[in-house]
């Protein structure tokens, strides 16, 4: 099984790295945007960089087409995302290509869903949240506990 690990840089990338026990023994690659933390990850992992959408429609379209190109080339079986921004765009591209989507709502969302989570919940094959209080917002989701 080949896995695409899609997330924004920063905290979302930190969450993804906490899941290394899950993906370390499997063929995988990361899709994120450029920042010092994601660039340093590229020294030891296969990383593809996409445009940071930043809620800018033009950047979002650029990120989407870059994501489609990467997913077509790499052909993963599934996309796992800890959100947000670029991570969500990769999930949308993956869903359109028929990939299984696993979305993990961010740890920083203990009380109310984030925008990326609300969107991904609509189409994710598996939706995991980290705080029990989010069950009322995500009835089809699965409580997974804290990544940290």
The strand order across the widest sheet is 3-2-1-4-5-6-7
Total DSSP E strands: 7
Low-confidence segments, ≥5 residues, pLDDT <50?
none
CATH homolog superfamily:
Glycogen Phosphorylase B
CATH fold node name: Rossmann fold
User: How would you characterize the largest beta sheet?
Assistant: 7 strands, parallel
* Alpha-beta classification: alpha/beta
Helix content: 25-40%
Assign the CATH architecture: 3-Layer(aba) Sandwich
How far apart the termini lie comes to 25 Å
Average pLDDT taken over every residue: 96
Q: What is the number of helical segments per DSSP (H or I, 4+ residues)? A: 6
- The succession of helices and strands, N to C, reads EHHEHEHEHEHEE
Describe the model.
The chain is of the alpha/beta class and 148 residues long. It has a single domain, classed as Glycogen Phosphorylase B (Rossmann fold). The protein contains 6 helices and 7 strands. Helix 5 packs parallel to helix 6. The longest helix has 18 residues.
